[in-house]
Amino acid sequence: MSSLTEKDRPIVQLLLNTGTCPRCILRFCCVGSQTLYRCPYKDLMKDLKEFLKNNEEKEDTVCFDAVDPPCKRIRLEHTEEGPDDLNHNGALQQIPSVNNENTTIESSALKVCNLCLGILQEFCEVDFIKKVCQKVNSSDYQFTSFVFSVSLPPQLSVRERAAWLLVKQEMGKLGLSLAKEDVVQLKEAYKWIIHPQLSEALGVPADGKSLFEVSVVFAHPETDEECHFLATACPDCFKPAKNKQSVFTRMAVIKALEKIKEEDFLMHFPCPPNSPKNQSVALEIQCNNGAVFVAGRYNKYSRNLPQTPWIIDGERKLESSVEELISEHLMAEFKADSFNFSSSGREDVDVRTLGNGRPFAIELVNPRRIHFTAEEMKGLQQTINNSSDKIQVRDLQLVTRSAIGRMKEGEEEKTKTYSALIWTDKAIQREDIAFLDDIKELKLDQKTPLRVLHRRPLAVRCRIIHTMKSEYIDEHHFRLHLKTQAGTYIKEFVHGDFGRTKPNIGSLLNRTADILELDVESVDVDWPPSLDN
C-alpha cells in the first residue's frame, strides 16, 4: 500500500493552491506507485479533497491503494536555515493559506497545471492515446513491441526547480528535507501512465530494448522564453550547435540550473511558477524502426560499373553502380527510408569480382517491414540476380550490427587473390617469367598511388605479395595470378606508378610492363556464413 501521510498535507495544500495538478502533487510527495498515477484524473482530485478533509491528528490518511511499492521517500533531517518567505525580487513568494479547500480543488481542476503544463492532464486521456495509435497504424510498420519516448519543453525543468524550492522551504518548516532526486520525474510518471494504455491499444508489450520507437515531441510556445534568463546567468552553458535550432536545449538548461545559485534563480523566476493560459501541444508524433542489416556476397561481371555511384562535381559519370543495383530491391521490399552500403574492400570500375564474390552489408534505415523468412530472402536474392547481368549476389541474409565488424576486420587482415593480364614492351619467352613463380613473401613499399592521391593521404605502405604464378600467352602478354595482403595496389605493382611502388613487375623483368585487365578471384573473408542457395 502506498499512501499520503500527515507530513504530505502541507505539500498537497500548498501545491493545490498554486495551480498544480494531482499527478504533479503526487510526484512532489515522492509517491512511487505507478498504479496510482494511472487513476482517472477526477478520481485523483476527489481523493486529494478527501485527504485534506481528514482529521489532521490521524497518522495514516486515506488513501491511495496500489499494488506497487513506493520507490521514493521524503527524508527526515535537520536542514539548514534558508531564506524565509522571500518575494520575487530574490526569493519565495508568500503563499496564502488554503481556507476553502473545495474552492481550491475545483479551481485546480479547471486550470492548466503550472508544473507539467498539461502533459499529465489532457495528454494522459483516451483521446490522445487514440491519436497516437492512429499515427502508428497509418505508418504501416511491422513490430512486436515498442519503446515510448518523450521530448519535453526545456522550460519544464525551470518550473520544476521553482516548485522544488517552494516545497523544500515548506518542508524545512517541519524539520524535513526534500532532495531533488527524490521527486518523481515528469517523464517517468508520464510513461507509467501511457505504457499500459498504448500496450493495450496496440496489442504488443512496451519494451525498453525494442527497436520500434513511438515518440512524442511536446512544446509550450506561451512559456518558451522562460529559459532565457539562464543564458545571462550561465552563458557558458549555452553554445550554438549546427544541428540545433535553439541553444536552449533540455541538457543545456539542466546544466545551467545546476550552476546557478538559488538566490540568483529566485531573482529572475517566480516561485511558485505562474499558471499558464494554454496547455502544451504535441508538435510531432513519430514512429521509427531500428535499422535492419542485410549481408551477402556479390560478383561483378562488368568492366564499366563502379562499386558506388560515380559522381564528379555533381555530374554522374556512369548510369549505375553495384550499390544501387542491389539496394534498390532491398529498399523496395523493406520499405526503408534510406540505406548505407559497406563492403570488404572495393574494386575499380574496370575490375571484375569473380569466384565466391566480395562480402557486403547494407544498413536499411527506418524499415517498415522487418520480418523475412529464409525463403523470402532467397526470393529477394533471385529478384536482384534476374534484374541485371552485370552483378549477381549470393548468401543474402539478415545479420546483426555487431556481426558486420567481422567483415571490416578482414579488409586489412585477410588475403586476396587476383588475376592480371600483363603487357610488356619487349618480347618475352616462358623462361623470362618463370622465376616469378618461385618468389614468396615479396615485400613492397607502396606510396599512395597518383590516381587516388586526391582522396587518400600521402603515405608509404608496406604490403606483401605472398605468391605468384605466371601463365605465358605470347611474346608480349602473360597472365599473372597473385595472392596478396589485403590493401595491396595491384595495378601499381605491375607498372610501378613512376617508381612509387618498389619493387614492381617492370623492375623485376627489367622492362616496361602495364596491366590490361584485372580480376579479383577471391576475397578470403569467412563472412557472411555460406548458405545453401
Automatic annotation (TrEMBL):
Keywords from the named record: Coiled coil, Cytoplasm, Isomerase, Metal-binding, Mitochondrion, Nucleus, tRNA processing, Zinc
GO biological process: tRNA pseudouridine synthesis
Record-annotated Pus10 N-terminal eukaryotes domain positions: 113-287
InterPro entries documented for this protein: PsdUridine_synth_cat_dom_sf, Pus10-like, Pus10-like_C, Pus10_N_euk
Signal peptide interval: none
GO molecular function list: metal ion binding; RNA binding; tRNA pseudouridine(55) synthase activity
Subcellular location: Cytoplasm; Mitochondrion; Nucleus
This protein's GO CC annotations: mitochondrion; nucleus
Chain ranges of the Pus10-like C-terminal domain: 293-524
Pfam families in alphabetical order: Pus10_C, Pus10_N_euk
Name used for this protein in its record: tRNA pseudouridine synthase Pus10
Species in which this protein is naturally found: Pedionomus torquatus (Plains-wanderer)
Recorded name of the encoding gene: Pus10
